[in-house]
Structures are given as C-alpha cells and as structure tokens.
Amino acid sequence: MITIDKENGIFHLHNAQVSYVLQVVRDRYVLHRYWGRPLKTFRDSSPMQAIDRAFSPQPAAWPNERTFSLDVLPQEYPAYGHGDYRLPAYEVRLANGTTVTELFYDHYEITAGKPKLKGLPAVYAGEQEAETLHIYLKDSQGKLAVELLYTLLQDSAMLTRSARITNCGSEALDLTNAASFALDFADHDFDRLNLYGGHAAERSLERVPLMRGVQETGSRRGASSHQQSPFLALARKDAGETSGEVYGFSLIWSGEASFVTEVEQFGTTRVIGGINPFEFKWHLGAGEIFQTPEAMLVYSDKGLNGMSQVFHQTVREHIVRGKYQHELRPILVNNWEATYFDFDEEKIDNLAQSAADLGLELLVLDDGWFGKRNDDNSSLGDWFVNTDKLKQGLKGVSASAHKRGLKFGLWFEPEMISEDSELFRAHPDWTLHVPDYKNSFSRHQLVLDLSRPEVCNYVVKAVGDVLESAEIDYVKWDFNRHLSEAFSAALPAERQGETKTRFVLGLYDVLERLTAKFPQVLFESCSGGGGRFDAGMLYYMPQTWTSDNTDAICRLSIQSGTSLVFPPITMGAHVSVTPNHQVGRVTSLQTRTLCAFAGDFGYELDITRMSAAEKEQVKKHVALYKKLRPTLQLGKFYRLLTPFAGTKNETAWQFVSEDGKEVVVLYFKTLAEPATPIRKLQLTALDADAEYELTDYLPAQRTSHDFGGEKSLDMKGQVFYGDELMYNGLGVEKIDTDFAAYMWVLTKK
Question: Which residues are catalytic?
Fold first, then answer.
C-alpha cells in the first residue's frame, strides 16, 4: 500500500512487514526518511534539523541559507557537482565536456502490479500482488530525466528499486555511472556483510565493522563472479541469525556489479548499488533511454534468517518462472567426474543402467560430446555431435537413458569459442578482442561477442538445433572464463564502454528466446560452478551449479553462504568420489550425501565402480531423499548453526515443509574435539503447542576407532512438544570422528 501526504510531500510505502518513506522537500529534492518496521503512519517524529555545516555549500536558490545544504541531505538519487561531495548515484558527461546536472522532483504516479523492465530480468508480480511508485525527476536545464521505480510486494518485506534515465536534450551524452539505487542511513552503527571467494571457494561470509570512508564490494570480471557476489547486507551490531535488524541488498544482474558504502564526516551512511561504474560508459543519444538493472531491498528485524526468508520467497515466487518453478527437481548423475572427456557410447550406456538400478532419474552428458572435443583445447562453438565417440549421435545416448526410465541432459558452453574450431575459422571477428593486441586465453578459450545480434542469433540457432535433434530434458549451461579484451568490432568508438553491459543484455536475449522455445527443458546455469550465481540467471534458469568443489566439508560454507540470498532448490549439490578430486579429503558416504540433500541432489562420480555395499547404501539414500524431497526442495530453510560463526566447526540446517507437518534437521561436525560440552541443537519455527514425533534418525557413521560403551541417542518414536525442541533442543550424540553428519526427521502429530 502506498499512502501519500501531499501537504508534507510524504510517500509512505507500507504493509504488515515493512515501511519505506520518501519526502519531497522544497518541491525539488526527494529525500529518504525511513526504512524499517511497519508504521501506522509517518508523522515525522524526528524532523530534519537545520544546522550550519561549515564547508557544505548552499544551492543557488538559497545562497544565504547556511543551514541548508545538499551535502547533508539524505537523497534518494543524488548527483555530484552542486555541493554534495559524497558518492553520486549517477554521473554524466555532456556534449560540452561538463559533468554537472541537477535533478528536481517533477511528479509521481502509482500503478498496480509490477512493470516489466525491457530486456532485463526482474521481479514479477500481478496487480493484486504489488504496487509501484514512480517518482519522476527532471534536470533543471532539460538535459535528462530520471524515473525512479519502487515496487513493494504485498505481504512481504521485499522492496525493489531501479532507475530509468532518458536523454531529454538535443545532443548526445555519456552515462558514466547509473546505479540502481542509492540510500542514506542516519548513522553508521552497522556491520558490513558480503560474500567473497574464488573458483571452488564461493560465497564465504565476511562480517566487518562499517568503516569511515568508502568500502566496496564489486566485480570487474564481466560477470557477477566467484570472487564477489552481487549482495550486501548492513546488520546492527547485535544482529544474529534470528534476531536484530538487517538490511539486505541483492542485484538482479549477471554482469559487473558494485555495492559501495560511504560513511561521511557527520557519521551518516550512503549505500549505492548497481552496475559497476569501472569502465562503464553508455552513449545516450537524444531521446534514448537507459534502464538500470533492478535491486532487491529487504528489511528484517529477525536477523539474517529473517532476511533470507524474504529473499527465498521472492526468488521462488517472483524470480523463477516456468514449468519448474514449483516442480520437484530430479535426482541426477553427471558423467564429468566419472569420465571427464574419456567416454564413448558403451561407458554412457553402462552409466545409464547403473543410474536406473540405483533409482536415479536423470543422466547428464557433460563436456566432450561435440566437435572434435577430447580436451579443453578445441571445438567450443562447433555444436554438432562428435560421432567418433557417439556413433549413434545424441539420439542414441538419449534413447539409452529414456528406455531405462531416465531423463537425459546435456552440457553446453555457448558463450565461448575455441581458436581451434570451425566457428572461429569462419568468424574470427566474432570474439571479444582489441585491435592491434593479442587476446588473452583462459582455459584455452575466447569469448563470443554477444553484444552483436548476429552472434546471438547463431547461438540461439545452434543450441536450438541440438535441442530439437534428440529428446533432451535438461541443459547445463556453462561459462568457464571471465571477460578480457572487452572490445566489440561491431560498435563505434564512442560505444565501446557499453560492450560488457551489452554482452549481458545479449545473453539475456538468447536465454529468453531459448527458454521460451523449449519450456519443457530444465535449464541449470553454471560458471565454473558458482561464478554466476545470481538472480538474473535464475530468472531464466531455475537452478545453478553451486560450485565445482564437490567436497562436502567445503560445501558446508559454500551452501550456507549461498543461502543468505538463495533457497536450496536453486543449488545443485552432488555426491562425489572420495578422496575428493578438488581437495583430496576423505569423508563418509553419509556425510557427502546429507550435505548434498540440502540442494538439488545428484551424483558426480562413476557409480558403475561402486562396491555392492555402497550401491545398497545409495539405494537407501535415494529412496530417503525421494520421501523427503518435497520438504527439502519446497519447504522453508533455516540456518541453525553456520560455519562462519563461533568455532567454525559446526553447521546445522533445518527444513520445514510447506504445511509445517514435516521437519528435517541436518547437523555437521567438522572436526572431533576432546572435552567438549554436549551440543543441544535448538530448532526454530515450530508450533510451540504441537507435538512432534521423531520418525527417522541417522547418527554419524562411526570409524573403526569405536571404543564401545556409548549408548546411542536414537530417540526414534519419541514425541516432544515444539516448545521443548525450540527452547531445550535436541541432544546431539557425541562421536569421536571427523566430518560427522547427522539427520533427524520429525513429524507433527
């Protein structure tokens, strides 16, 4: 609901979860006044105070009013050059070389529902699900106009923001910065939380005090990246997983992003998020429009878990689309770590038979099926079957899977090209490259220039032809290097700063066309694992390969960090061989399995070489997962313990079914310790007055060093009230082995 106090220029966006307040002052400036717990009405109980701030200049209209300066106003979309010395939300360079503009409030509009953003993924909502406030700003000299879009979802603490910038003048201008949002807080008593990492080590949580000056989380790699996730949170010092105030920001964008915080001289905090302005330049001709990506803003007074619940609900109900939005995801086996490039029809056929015997549901053929691809040196771009390996083509291996009751999936990397490929020999200019300089290679490959429509058309046709050539149910879409030499042979000099942005827009165009044409295909995004795990990709592909690192212990932090924003149903999580191929760690099959339960479950190993005992255990795990799958994939997810807090030695996750009748709890202890207190695991989000029966329990697998004498804490069949489970907790059986994993299943009576 949006309430307007015209007399005082106040716009109050509110529902039962949150309030967000703007105010227009002096008929010119749009200021941020409040964001937090829901208010009945905003009557300005803490009015802005007029204070003479030295070295803070006055606007031209009020030259002698020393208590009024843009340098201290909490502006919603600030500019630079008229006395506000903090970081701006946008920057332009006009035809005459100057960079100073000034935006004044013009008018507003309120619309039901949520407008689409042309060419961009965004939150979607119907007329009964949301309301949108449009604030229109105009430059005082008519150079440009900006439309600020604010959408508040009904019954959610989710607010979305973006900006639409129009060149209103007669001459072209260059946008050199165009943030999706800016926001000023009245203080800086926060911790700053971001998700950092690298390939095979994505999304670890870093929490540091907010410092004076500028701090940035950002990617300059052409993609949202393994290194810095497009996410930021500001949390009050006392905020934890279940209590305290948290403000979360996530960008619906798969390219370079930036989140900047600036604590300035008077202790206030400015937050700006959007496309990374580093080397960004958009040449905006007269009358042309630039639409920024959309940002999701979440307020929580229930800590990080409260923030995550809002993000999860929004991603599941208002980002992910199509057939698989609410559909259970299949249990797969991927041949990559089983065979790498060394496979033929017989190996894949044997893998299919073993998968069917174990109760799996989807066979995925990974890299190496196309062109002359026997290693990573060639053939990217040549999307036709390698008949030396697959004599009967894709129809043969697809039929092999389907006759055994399995679905069949295929790996692609359509944004890339190998120098040793028919495509490169025909179109060397289709790569991103800089004239007069040699290209950098990564994984022996170059990047196709998706800023060019003809290249996008080629990708759509090439991939589409393959998908029409056989019965293909699933696609793993990979992206195994970041951009370098980001120059397009098809763009004029004044538009080269647009190349990386146009690359992402071209990708979105390709994905929109392919997913619309093949709605029955389950698409999974991948970028060397989780290098492009963002809401932009999830708009087209409902799940993402979380990391190339399949080690269960590494995955505890990777999946915990990912869950800050994204629900488990979006995370690919597989059981791999031990010793693990990435870190060499040895873990039990149960530990690897229970960690992979917390995502889209599958196997990434040669199941044909498992022992008879291992196969029997896998059959039991698969049957158990199928039973629990509705809760694990569609239920609400809570972090009870995280590897980012305390000793970093424990992780616990809880899932509650949509109807609240089933609860699954997973607990992991990384290293055994002597003389430790008994862990009591306090559950959350239960009905305090209801009874819950412990219907299943998996204790950790013991090693050969079992000294005996200890009694198991298997309380299967016992019944407890919800209040006891939440406030007293479940006792965790002490076990002296590393990498231990436990599971409890409770059923509400």
Answer: 478, 548
